[in-house]
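Problem 12. The chain below contains 478 residues. Write out its predicted structure in token notation.
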Amino acid sequence: MTHFDAATAAVQAALDAGARYADARVMHRRHESMSARNGEVEQLGQSEDAGIGVRALVGSSWGFYAVPELSDAAARAAGVRAAEIAAASATVPGRDSGLIPVDGRSGSWASPCEIDPLTIALSDKGDLLVRATETMRANGADLAEADYQVWDTTKWFVSSEGHRVDQRVRECGGGIRATAIGADETQRRSYPSSSGHYGTQGWELIGALDFDAHAARIAQEARELLTAPQCPAGETTLILGGEQMALQIHESVGHAIELDRILGWEAAFAGTSWLDLGQLGSLRYGSELMNVTIDPTIPGALGSFGFDDEGTPATRRDAVREGRWVGVLAGRDSAAAAGLDYAGSVRADGWSRLPMVRMTNVGLEPGPHTLEEMIAATDDGVLMDVNRSWSIDDQRLNFQFGCEIGWEIKNGRRGRMLRNPTYTGIGPLFWRSMDMLSSETFAWGTPDCGKGQPGQVGHTGHPAAPARFTGVRIGVRG
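Solution.
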């Protein structure tokens, strides 16, 4: 059987068993990771798996079943079982759960990849990581770490509405971290971010990150932070660097606009959202500089794809336009429940998991300023960058973030380094205080967004640039 044959057999079996709609995803994934610490390769992991996951809709309820076997008999049995689970789960007999219409279509898509990461010799990869840790150790780091991860995923999707889609997504990325240990505390500096940077690209992404060029600097900064002045407490003007802005977008915008949260479908584990659907199109989320897009079409960004896991073609749309909330991340069923006419944001982290609403590339469009212009326009403030810790409530409203590094700004100039910088705020009030935004946008990628029961790990992208906020409380302790 071909992979499409297996998916087709599963869908037909679900329909024969009483489902009014069914789809199936065959997935094959290879994963590789390596990490080094203090001059030695410490971990190497390689895995490969394949299987089929089937969704079936009976009345108002979904059923899902997955098996790690692609024979005709196994695929058909999975389709029947998915329909049986859906029928058993139906709580309102006779009521149909709607799906917004999506044209059934055939299609193929592949992410850009100049250098296949899995063809690079393990010895070369190990040498790169070891060399970076040795440089960090030589420049003051007590603990030096470096790592990378690679995923090569192929999907075949078939639905009872005529979809027949295949995709190949290659993802790659990594990072380095230097920790300095003092008498009373430790300080860490990371590059390019605390969790690394990832994209739907090949090994060329690792080459562009150039760990060798940054290893000495971050080790020296970690050591300097041990004796740097403590970030002051109070209310001031805050400038956030691009990496921290990416996390700010992820936590206080991306999760808040997930429609399943807004509808209360994810309340048990991931929390809900402070947003009210009745205010979609009218709510003032932020300042007029705030333009947030949902865009899975960005070449090379980690949240990019050709089709989501319901077969909906990747489409760019607005989430916030000139500060006004205008769009959500949705699936076909959640969109129908909310009376919307678009979906396209449903993915699963493997063949054995039920697809759900996930972030794609949720990011800020660039502004009219530069970082240097923002600093020059600030008489008294603090610049912070690179996340160290975060906390946000289950409605994605009240938050507190800690960054790895800060700098004092006085009279339009960047001054002394500050340690343990923190800031806190309330989502819409914080975003409404944004009065300057840089044009220097970069699409940060994070591969470790958690959601769902059983838990799933999502790969998301966040175009972000430095921005300035007024009247922000900083130096929060505890």
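Discussion. Residues 142 and 245 are 29 Å apart (CA to CA). Students who got a different answer should revisit the alignment rule from Section 12.3.
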